[in-house]
Design a protein that fits this description.
Blueprint (H helix, E strand, L loop, with lengths): L13 H10 L4 H10 L6 H8 L7 H11 L12
Helix pairs in contact: 2-3
């Protein structure tokens, strides 16, 4: 069985990603550029979809987010409120 939603969300890390990005005073485009340096090709549009829970997050993307923001991947393991 393929699950693409959990409690009506496509991911539970989008809010935390947005929070960390804004705290770092980084635009979605800035984040996309940093991700490219990590070998992850995401556009600012895809980052927006993640932040608004409209796109699934791959495990390797989550680890790249954690590396960029210098947090553990567990930091993203919180449900949306």
């Amino acid at each position: 069985m393929k699950i693409t939603k959990y409690n009506n969300y496509r991911n539970i890390s989008g809010n935390k990603l947005k929070e960390l990005r804004k705290k770092s005073k980084m635009s979605q485009q800035d984040l996309a550029k940093k991700l490219q340096l990590e070998g992850i090709d995401l556009t600012s549009k895809e980052i927006s979809k993640i932040e608004t829970n409209k796109r699934l997050v791959q495990d390797f993307e989550l680890f790249a987010f954690a590396k960029i923001f210098k947090v553990t991947s567990d930091e993203f393991n919180t449900e949306n409120k």
